[in-house]
């Protein structure tokens, strides 16, 4: 790709400012109060794709938020790359933990981002990383260096499960036909240690409700005589792990993929400092399943975590009450071969069965998805590896991710093509957390690297 670095340098400020304007829109798909903002973001993406050189761009309606589809077909005999991303973002709560307002982007220098990082909700998940592809497209079309066909599919419901995207994909297989799918919704090990994500965990997300008496009760008059839903819920949750932090749900591990010693040894080659890890999180010890390292626990092993718990009185001061109801949200990260719908059923049956008399338990499934592994001997992986080598000066490390992109497994099932995950954020960039940020260097490095993937994928496909 000729002159890509000079092009990025020339347009650097515009690239950053365009992303900042996009980040100002609070496209929170989980909260209906932000519906107009989500739709406004879809309109902005449409305009951006048109300006980047797509010949056709359309906002495709679904039963939820729309999918923005764009394409540029230069020769039907050439390969076609389908770019997937999402324009919705996580809720910013808790707001009080942000050092700057989540939808008023600011650039600040950090230890890991000495050139500055953009602080805003969605900065790297996924607006910043999605927009890298738009700007890479702009470079290739404006300099007449697009080597193959490209399609874009940018959705607005990734953070709430992508249920309508699944229907869209099934109903538009010909429109979405491609040779490889390219996604930037993952990270890399470090700015001087590039990596390519080769595996994602699946997900099962549920909400539980425990009901005791038919109304809130005075804890002095009734305490010790009736079941306290909060006490019981915490005991039930605690029982879901044993003393080795092994999940106790019967059948949970039946289909878990066990990696060989050789595969685990390859994983261990990735640079990792346990002391730096603990320091970054301000903890004095790590915690997890016995027999596995930290990097194995958060990538190749399944987990069960409480994401939220509430009930009773939580306001200022005291209120001596036994709550009628209490709730929790629970997510399970799954590894390849674990079917998320089966795991959800196992959880529901187990949680309802361990409830003691005196309370009623309700389990409501929310959403989920399958895990995914991409082969490192594919043309797509080889093309990505060559692209990283060119821009980083070293071969990237294959890495399993602990996160989930549930739609990826569906892509392979419905579109019959592999997905390549080229992520550029760092684990310390606080996705889903207060003070999410994305390094300016990382953003521009993504724009520099992505066109090279197009180049090498086209060359290797001949």
Describe the overall structure:
By secondary structure, the chain is α/β, with parallel strands linked by helices. The protein contains 13 helices and 20 strands. It has helices at residues 4-23, 35-52, 127-142, 163-171, 219-222, 229-238, 261-267, 274-281, 294-297, 340-353, 379-392, 407-415, 440-460, and strands spanning 56-60, 67-72, 80-86, 106-108, 117-119, 149-155, 180-183, 187-188, 195-200, 202-211, 217-218, 303-311, 321-322, 325-334, 360-369, 372-373, 397-400, 419-421, 425-426, 437-439. α1 packs across α3 (127-142) and α11 packs across α13 (440-460). The longest helix has 21 residues, at 440-460. The radius of gyration is 23 Å and the shape is globular. The two termini are 18 Å apart. Keywords: Dipeptidase, Hydrolase, Metal-binding, Protease. GO terms for molecular function: dipeptidase activity. Residues 199-358 form the Peptidase M20 dimerisation domain.
């Amino acid at each position: 790709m000729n002159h890509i670095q000079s092009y990025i340098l020339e347009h650097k400020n515009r690239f950053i400012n365009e992303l900042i304007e996009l980040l100002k829109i609070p496209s929170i798909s989980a909260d209906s109060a932000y519906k107009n903002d989500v739709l406004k973001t879809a309109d902005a993406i449409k305009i951006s794709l048109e300006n980047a050189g797509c010949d056709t761009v359309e906002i495709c309606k679904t039963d939820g938020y729309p999918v923005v589809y764009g394409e540029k077909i230069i020769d039907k005999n050439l390969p076609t790359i389908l770019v997937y991303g999402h324009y919705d973002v996580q809720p910013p709560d808790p707001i009080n933990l942000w050092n700057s307002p989540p939808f008023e982007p600011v650039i600040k220098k950090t230890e890991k981002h000495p050139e500055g990082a953009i602080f805003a909700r969605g900065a790297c998940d996924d607006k910043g990383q999605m927009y890298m592809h738009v700007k890479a497209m702009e470079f290739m079309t404006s300099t007449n260096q697009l080597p193959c066909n490209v399609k874009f599919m940018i959705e607005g419901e990734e953070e709430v499960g992508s249920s309508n995207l699944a229907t869209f994909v099934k109903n538009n297989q010909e429109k979405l036909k491609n040779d490889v799918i390219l996604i930037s919704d993952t990270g890399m090990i470090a700015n001087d240690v590039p990596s390519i994500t080769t595996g994602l965990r699946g997900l099962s997300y549920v909400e539980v409700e425990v009901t005791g008496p038919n109304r809130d009760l005075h804890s002095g008059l009734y305490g010790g005589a009736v079941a306290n839903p909060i006490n019981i819920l915490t005991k039930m949750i605690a029982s879901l792990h044993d003393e080795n932090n092994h999940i106790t749900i019967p059948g949970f591990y039946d289909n878990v993929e066990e990696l060989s010693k050789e595969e685990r040894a390859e994983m261990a080659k990735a640079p990792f400092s346990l002391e730096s890890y603990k320091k970054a999180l301000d903890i004095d010890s790590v915690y997890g399943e016995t027999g596995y390292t930290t990097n194995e626990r958060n990538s190749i092993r399944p987990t069960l975590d409480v994401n939220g718990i509430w009930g009773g009185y939580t306001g200022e001061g005291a209120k001596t009450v036994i709550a009628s109801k209490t709730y929790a949200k629970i997510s399970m990260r799954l590894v390849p071969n674990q079917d998320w719908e089966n795991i959800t059923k196992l959880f529901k049956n187990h949680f309802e069965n361990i409830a003691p008399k005196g309370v009623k338990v309700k389990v409501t499934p929310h959403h989920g998805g399958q895990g995914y592994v991409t082969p490192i001997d594919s043309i797509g992986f080889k093309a990505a590896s060559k692209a990283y080598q060119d821009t980083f000066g070293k071969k990237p490390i294959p890495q399993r991710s602990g996160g989930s992109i549930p739609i990826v497994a569906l892509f392979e099932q419905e579109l019959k093509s592999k997905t390549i995950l080229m992520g550029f954020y760092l684990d310390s960039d606080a996705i889903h957390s207060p003070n999410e940020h994305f390094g300016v260097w990382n953003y521009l490095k993504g724009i520099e690297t992505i066109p090279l993937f197009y180049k090498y994928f086209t060359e290797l496909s001949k």
